[in-house]
Amino acid sequence: MAQEDVFKKIVSHCKEYGFVFPSSDIYDGLGAVYDYGQNGVELKNNIKQYWWQSMVLLHENIVGIDSAIFMHPTVWKASGHVDAFNDPLIDNRDSKKRYRADVLIEDQIAKYEEKIDKEVAKARKRFGDKFDEEQFRSTNPRVLENQQKRDALHQRYSDAMNAMDLAELKQIILDEEIACPISGTRNWTDVRQFNLMFKTEVGSTADGASTIYLRPETAQGIFVNYLNVQKTGRMKVPFGIAQIGKAFRNEIVARQFIFRMREFEQMEMQFFVKPGTELEWFKSWKETRLKWHKALGFGDDSYRYHDHEKLAHYANAATDIEFKMPFGFKEVEGIHSRTNFDLSQHAKFSGRKIEYFDPETNESYTPFVIETSIGVDRMFLSVMCKSYEEEKLENGETRVVLKLPAALAPVKLAILPLVKKDGLPEKAHEIMQQLKFHFNCKYEEKDSIGKRYRRQDAIGTPFCITVDHDTLKDNCVTLRDRDTMEQTRVPIDSLLSLIEEKVSLISLLKKLQ
Questions:
Q1: Euclidean distance between the first and the last CA atom of the chain, given in angstroms as a whole number
Q2: Is 99 helix (H, G, I), strand (E, B) or coil?
Q3: I need a surface site. Which of 73, 283, 327, 501 has the fewest CB within 10 A?
Q4: Do 86-194 and 393-512 have matching folds?
Q5: Which numeric CATH code is attached to 86-194?
Q6: Is the peptide bond before 405 cis (omega within 30 degrees of 0)?
Q7: How far is the C-alpha of 487 from the C-alpha of 502, rounded, in Å?
Q8: What integer best gives the mean pLDDT of the chain?
Q9: Residue 151: pLDDT above 70?
Q10: For residue 253, what pLDDT is reported?
Q11: Is residue 143 a contact partner of residue 118, using CB atoms and an 8 Å limit?
């Protein structure tokens, strides 16, 4: 099945099973805005808990805050967002649709990479175990041709973005014969800049109202609270401040479901270090963050680093952790060495002295910062994409199953009475009362036991127990494993320890030590 079709099925599955709904759905939705349903909010909260505890629980020198969405407008002047937070946009005159010029070119680069991967895949299938991929990539004419085109385009694109040469970006689009996906034509306008921040007003009267912005990132809330946290927490460099919160960007080209939205959530940690040590910490946090992702068990080949060639003006190193989505490798997390730009800017614009006094060296300095920033929604999407499977069973049927990491699953245990009589529902509710304080349980009695299993498979419930007539005699239940579908008879008294060990976040966090 084509990856595009798989992605469409995942989007449909998200709505059908209460994970993600279009916002304002009864009014036909609002572009690039989504609501999380009853199962989606549980999965999303579990992802956030996994991140939060991996930061704050496992690191004695990292603390958390929750800063306001509304901030003084000068914050965004100091950060550079007012003057420089822009996307290069281009319109197709025939379809009247607007696109990000950089995304069009990046998609073209990805097409060359896909052609190379297809040639490699065909050769691997043809030669089997004898296949030497490295030799094939370095000698095959079609691979070399596409690699040359890809590298030349990448270099030209990188140069244009570094210089923010809008005319060159358009020329690249014309030279590569990139067409509008809707009209199929290459009738493009010039490329121009568009600021992504939402504006609003605060104040009781029109005359007295002030223009403020919805924050486009959560990081600035950490920087302006640096002194508050450092002094009240008696924090010593190196230390970090973590935060989970909403951010807003007026994305003109929002697409690919919840991958790019106008209202989204970030998990960010700013780690303050002594100048001169930042690149060592940058390398350390790259490894730490990749380990966090890989602990979910989705396979090492699902991730890769993408080192930035075009650095933001405030950075001296930047890397993305990319995840293999159905539509290609895409960024889910960024690790950046932001130097001391942010704190220095806020010191300049606020007139406050924002430094750290090092008692060991008796010197004051402005700390450098290593940032780790991960999109909750993109993380959610990557988990859904990697967990979604359609399995052919021995009886010829197909089951749709979400093989979510057990610790992230919305529901940990489904409790199912075999029939709705003979005291089985009462016994099932009794078990529910015992276990619901420890993890999220769901009671269900409607339809056949097979249909109920399928519904739990579809929302990713790792375990189901069936309460049958023998349960009333031996105080045991049938425990079914989602992934293997194996069923075993276990005592009710052992359920808590048996299941909690496998569904607890602790099992994930221990992999990080």
A1: 39
A2: strand
A3: 501
A4: no
A5: 3.30.40.230
A6: no
A7: 16
A8: 92
A9: yes
A10: 64
A11: no
371-423 pLDDT, tens digit per residue, is 999 999 999 999 999 999 999 888 888 899 999 999 999 999 999 999 989 89
Cβ–Cβ < 8 Å for 384, 48: no
Judge contact between 166 and 173, C-beta under 8 A. no
Decide if pLDDT at 340 tops 60: yes
Are 122 and 109 in contact by the 8 Å Cβ rule? The answer is no
* 3-state SS, residue 414: strand
pLDDT reading at 17 higher than 60: yes
Q: What is the largest CA-CA distance in the chain?
A: 79
Local structure of residue 188 (DSSP, 8 states)? B
Q: Are 240 and 271 in contact (CB under 8 A)?
A: yes
- For 38-53, the pLDDT digits (tens) are 999 999 999 999 999 9
Q: Can you give the pLDDT at residue 130?
A: 84
CA 268, CA 333: separation in Å to the nearest integer? Answer: 10
Q: Write the pLDDT tens digit of every residue in 266-303.
A: 999 999 999 999 999 999 999 999 999 999 999 999 99
Beta-bridge partners for 334: 320, 373
Instruction: Please name which of 461, 454, 480 lies closest in space to residue 46, comparing C-alpha atoms.
Output: 461
Class of domain 393-512: alpha beta
Instruction: Give residue-wise pLDDT tens across range 176-222.
Output: 999 998 999 999 999 998 878 898 888 765 665 688 999 999 999 99
Domain ranges in the chain are 1-71+196-391, 86-194, 393-512
Query: Distance between CA atoms of 292 and 359, rounded to whole angstroms?
Result: 33
> Helix and strand tally (H, E) in the chain?
18, 23
Token couple for 441: 């349980």
pLDDT of residue 478 exceeding 80: yes
Q: Which of 118-122, 183-187, 256-260 has the highest mean pLDDT?
A: 183-187
Q: Residue type at 79?
A: S
The DSSP-derived string for 59-95 is -TTEEE----SB--HHHHHHHTHHHH-EEEEEEBTTT
In this prediction, residue 86 carries a pLDDT of 77
Give the tokens for residue 406. 């057990």
Omega before 326 cis (within 30°)?
no
Q: Give CA–CA dist 56/268, Å, rounded.
A: 12
Q: Residue 467 and residue 423: Cα distance in Å, rounded?
A: 10
192: left (phi over 0), alpha (psi -120 to 50) or beta: beta
User: How many other C-beta atoms lie within 10 A of the C-beta of residue 121?
Assistant: 10
> How far does Cα 462 stand from its chain's mean position?
22
Q: Which tokens is 345 given?
A: 């800017």
Distance between CA atoms of 273 and 509, rounded to whole angstroms?
A: 25
DSSP state of 214: B
Provide CATH code, domain 1-71+196-391: 3.30.930.10
Query: Both tokens of residue 240?
Result: 């970090």
